[in-house]
Design goal:
There is one protein chain. This protein has 205 residues and is α/β, with parallel strands linked by helices. The protein folds into two domains: 6-54, RecR Domain 1 (Helicase, Ruva Protein, domain 3, Orthogonal Bundle), CATH 1.10.8; 76-201, Dna Topoisomerase Vi A Subunit, Chain: A, domain 2 (3-Layer(aba) Sandwich). It has seven helices and seven strands, in the order H-H-H-E-E-E-H-E-H-E-H-E-H-E. Strands 4-3-5-6-7 form a five-stranded mixed sheet. Strands 1-2 form a two-stranded antiparallel sheet. Helix 1 (6-15) crosses helix 2. The relative contact order is 0.10.
């Protein structure tokens, strides 16, 4: 791909670094921005820079936030005694889009995967245990992708939570085993949350 402008070429190369964006799509985006007025492009650039510089992670659940506590944790209308444990922030957004869940979340930041060098100590597991110890939590819902790594993570955390008097469930397996949570359709995910079952039904001892 030949460019008559190094400025355009540099912009295309930066856009192409984004996931799912190839050179042709990157060029289309850059050319679109070139058609916009300076104020529009300036607002776009400022929004990206402001997000990167000012974004925070909730001190309670590790979700993205504008302040020390995210808007979900700060919402008194939500069931604070109910925690949905998810792998990443994308899963929070996916579940929220179903509009079927009114509790809080806890973002692990990954799942246990020894082959990928990810162990329990690299995840937000201890903060979950501490949170349950300090708060009046009644139920933990595991909403991890239904695969070996997800089940391993559930089993590990379940063992750590055994001394605590908290109900532990997992979303129903309307989500196919080996699938990724973020790719599930909203209706299937909503039914899985509504029809959650005790974690012992799915995680072998």
């Amino acid at each position: 791909m030949q460019f008559s402008s190094s400025l355009v070429e540099n912009a295309v190369n930066e856009f192409a670094k984004l996931p799912g964006i190839g050179k042709k799509t990157a060029l289309r985006l850059v050319l679109h921005l070139l058609k916009q007025n300076e104020a529009t492009v300036g607002n776009f650039g400022d929004a990206i820079i402001k997000m990167r510089n000012e974004i925070k992670f909730c001190q309670r659940c590790h979700n993205i936030a504008d302040a020390d506590i995210c808007s979900i944790c700060a919402n008194s209308m939500r069931k604070q005694e109910l925690i949905c444990v998810v792998e990443n922030i994308r899963d929070v957004i996916t579940i929220e889009s179903t509009q079927q869940y009114n509790g809080t979340y806890h973002v692990l930041g990954g799942i246990i995967s020894p082959l990928d060098g990810v162990g329990p100590e690299q995840l937000n597991i201890e903060s979950l245990v501490n949170r349950i110890n300090k708060e009046q939590v009644q139920e933990i819902i595991f909403a991890l992708s239904p695969n070996i790594q997800g089940d391993t993570t559930i089993y590990y955390i379940q063992k750590k939570l055994q001394p605590l008097s908290v109900k532990i469930t997992t979303i129903a397996r309307g989500i196919s085993f080996g699938g990724e949570l973020e790719y599930a359709d909203e209706m299937t995910l909503a039914r899985s949350i509504a029809n959650r079952l005790p974690v012992e039904n799915y995680v072998s001892k």
